[in-house]
């Protein structure tokens, strides 16, 4: 008996926030979900998330693409149909044509993510712990946040339909602390903890603070008073920020601001962290 693969067809202008909101409401989800609502470039660029140790990069959950080529023709490509084009689309950065549709594999979902937080000190211990947890396929989600060369919090999660009421945390609400600051609290306390987070809140845990970028844009943005009164206004659209920034701000970003976005093999993680630390703080 052959099983039927469940897919969702996504076209331009549908962002990740909209896709997950719809799918979760009907009991499905993407196997690999980027943390930011408006994140793009995942098919023709690359996307690696906290479930990629199981499902691979974002491109690996795509089963078909539709492109408009330079001659104006519409082409559909899969592993069997126009396969050379199908395998060339990822990492092509828009050079092959306009992507006008993608068919993406989906999987059944559950209500909560049971998330474990474990502070780890020492670079060797951090790398060892992250590699071990990533190799453990019982962990549906694995993420590490590094706060210094030798301090990190390793998080592992599994989906579940049941949650302990005294350990639930709806981290996506606008008045909640930014997620990376929330996680840092476990590091400062050197405390192992577990929380139950609504699935969609977990998926978009870095949206409100744009990972940690918003602290440079709104330095007081994580202040409890600001969160409670104005938290519903963030995050601002990046396109709006670029449109309204002055020349001084633009130069400041160009000369003193670095966005780290690197994809490296697990075996080189220690070497990579040391190199990043040396280049940025040496």
Automatic annotation (TrEMBL):
The keyword Transmembrane helix appears for this protein: yes
EC number: 1.3.1.72
Main location group: endoplasmic reticulum
Cofactor(s) this protein cannot do without: FAD
GO BP terms in the entry: cholesterol metabolic process
GO molecular function per UniProt: Delta24(24-1) sterol reductase activity; Delta24-sterol reductase activity; FAD binding
Top-tier EC class: oxidoreductase
UniProt keyword Phosphoprotein present: no
Membrane topology: Single-pass membrane protein
InterPro entries linked to this entry: Diminuto-like, FAD-bd_PCMH, FAD-bd_PCMH-like_sf, FAD-bd_PCMH_sub2, Oxid_FAD_bind_N
Subcellular location field: Endoplasmic reticulum membrane; Golgi apparatus membrane
Swiss-Prot/TrEMBL keywords: Cholesterol metabolism, Endoplasmic reticulum, FAD, Flavoprotein, Golgi apparatus, Lipid biosynthesis, Lipid metabolism, Membrane, NADP, Oxidoreductase, Signal, Steroid metabolism, Sterol metabolism, Transmembrane, Transmembrane helix
UniProt domain FAD-binding PCMH-type: residue ranges: 1-109
Record field: catalytic activity: lanosterol + NADPH + H(+) = 24,25-dihydrolanosterol + NADP(+); 5alpha-cholest-8-en-3beta-ol + NADP(+) = zymosterol + NADPH + H(+)
PANTHER family reported in the protein's UniProt record: 24-DEHYDROCHOLESTEROL REDUCTASE, DELTA(24)-STEROL REDUCTASE
Protein name according to UniProt: Delta(24)-sterol reductase
């Amino acid at each position: 008996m052959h099983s039927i693969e469940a897919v969702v067809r996504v076209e331009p202008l549908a962002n990740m926030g909209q896709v997950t909101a719809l799918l979760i409401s009907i009991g499905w989800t993407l196997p690999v979900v980027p943390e930011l609502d408006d994140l793009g470039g995942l098919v023709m660029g690359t996307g690696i998330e906290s479930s990629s140790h199981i499902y691979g990069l974002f491109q690996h959950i795509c089963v078909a693409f539709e492109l408009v080529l330079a001659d104006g023709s519409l082409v559909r490509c899969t592993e069997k149909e126009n396969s050379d084009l199908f395998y060339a689309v990822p990492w092509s950065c828009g050079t092959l044509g306009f992507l006008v549709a993608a068919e993406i594999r989906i999987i059944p979902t559950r209500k909560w993510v049971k998330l474990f937080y474990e502070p780890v000190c020492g670079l060797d211990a951090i790398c060892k712990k992250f590699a071990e947890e990533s190799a453990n396929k019982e962990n549906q989600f694995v993420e590490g946040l590094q706060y210094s060369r030798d301090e990190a919090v390793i998080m592992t999660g599994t989906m579940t339909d049941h949650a302990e009421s005294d350990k639930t945390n709806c981290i996506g609400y606008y008045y909640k602390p930014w997620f990376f600051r929330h996680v840092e609290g476990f590091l400062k306390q050197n405390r192992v903890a577990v929380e139950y987070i609504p699935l969609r809140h977990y998926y978009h845990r870095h949206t409100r603070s744009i990972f940690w970028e918003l602290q440079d844009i709104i330095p007081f943005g994580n202040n409890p008073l600001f969160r409670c009164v104005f938290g519903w206004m963030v995050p601002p659209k990046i396109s709006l920020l670029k449109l309204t920034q002055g020349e001084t701000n633009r130069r400041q970003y160009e000369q003193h601001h670095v966005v780290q976005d690197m994809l490296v093999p697990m075996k080189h993680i220690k070497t990579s962290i040391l190199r990043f630390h040396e280049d940025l703080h040496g």
